[in-house]
Amino acid sequence: MSETSPKLRAELEGIPTYKPGRPAAAGGPVAYKLSSNENPYPPLPGVMESVTAAARNFNRYPDMACSGLMEELSERFAVPLAHLATGTGSVGVAQQLVQATSGPGDEVMYAWRSFEAYPIITQVSGARSVQVPLTPGDVHDLDAMADAITGRTRLIFVCNPNNPTGTVVRRAELERFLDRVPKDVLVVLDEAYREFIRDPEVPDGVELYRDRPNVCVLRTFSKAYGLAGLRVGFAIAHEPVAAALRKTAVPFGVSQLAQEAAVASLRAEDELLGRVGSLVCERNRVVEGLRSQGWTVPETQANFVWLRLGERTVAFAAACEEHGVVVRPFPGEGVRVTVGETEANDILLKVAEAFRKEG
Fold first, then answer.
1. Please, which residues bridge with residue 217 across strands?
2. What is the mean pLDDT of the chain?
3. How far from the centroid of its chain's Cα atoms is residue 249's Cα?
4. Of 74, 83, 82, 68, nearest to 217 (Cα)?
């Protein structure tokens, strides 16, 4: 029997594995999962009814064009249908964008640390990652990113708010950056946490895209809308980019259940805004609590907070788990903590206070 294995692409060697937030242990001491930036609320009104009705027909393929959802998004954001594309969460659409723009010899740029899927989807395409360090305040260094553009740059991700730091770039600096980017380089504004922003100086990417053909906006139903388990996201971009996304999409990738749930969620935005407002209040309480204990916490506009702990990162995550919450450690760097239920946030604050006193 031959020992020869099938030939696989060399680019797959050494690809970092995406590390999802650990779930709460079933039957164990962990009661709250604060590791995946999920919404702690149940589905919005009307969502379960829509999903239940759609489930009666899941022996059939979903609407590949996502027609109902596309029409709803077109009306909601006042954009042409031809400027929309859907995918399996915003990360699925991000991978389609890399596939559509970049291959061997090309460069994909993003800040670091930022969303950990960026290096994975870049390496899968065969392109080269260009990682530009965040500023000492854990914010995108847009001037350094503009300076790093070369003739091989094809795609630039700007995660705003940034995952995992929660920090943002504001209108003036973002517009100045976009003015410096060559018009044939696609800039992707990844706005997965847009609904949680309260800083009026942070621009809505949809407004920036309208007169900039090289700007694409990513959004998702996984975070504020609470549909993380159904995997549906979308992009708003000018027609050539949106058309390329539809070409690179996995056929029937967005299930009918996800489509119906997304439409129902869009129609329940009043309830959504109330829930998001409550989470923002909890976010502010957690940040103020941590700062009062002496922690340095970057200003966050997302539904999570970032603690730069360096070598103490893993120890802090272990202390949290021991007391009933699981957080997301980035060993050697820091911990990202989702703003969850009030009870979970209270535990986090107690653990953080004790950990700081011990340290």
1. 189, 236
2. 94
3. 19
4. 83
Q: Where are the alpha helices (DSSP H) in the chain?
A: 47-55, 67-77, 89-101, 117-125, 142-147, 171-180, 205-209, 239-248, 256-266, 269-292, 313-322, 342-358
- Could you tell me how far CA 132 lies from the centroid of its own chain? 18
Instruction: Using DSSP, state whether 14 is helix, strand or coil.
Output: coil
- Check: CB of residue 320 under 8 Å from CB of residue 29: no
Scored b (16 or more CB within 10 A) or e, 67-90 reads: eebbebbbeebebeeebbbbbbbb
Q: What is the Cα–Cα distance from 181 to 145, expressed in whole angstroms?
A: 9
Q: Which residue has the higher pLDDT, 91 or 21?
A: 91
Task: Quickly tell me which residue has 């009661």 as its tokens.
Answer: 31
How many helices (H) and strands (E) the chain has is answered by 12, 12
237-269 pLDDT, tens per residue? 999 999 999 999 999 999 999 999 999 999 999
- Residues 82, 87, 90, 92: what is their CA dihedral angle, to the nearest 10 degrees? -130
Rounded distance between C-alpha atoms, residue 127 and residue 105, angstroms:
6
Please check whether residue 133 is in contact with residue 86, taking contact to mean a CB–CB distance below 8 angstroms.
no
pLDDT tens per residue across span 73-86? 999 999 999 999 99
The strand pair at 215-220 and 233-236 is best described as: antiparallel
Mean pLDDT of 177-197: 98
pLDDT at res. 11: 76
Asked if 262 and 227 touch (Cβ cutoff 8 Å), the reply is: yes
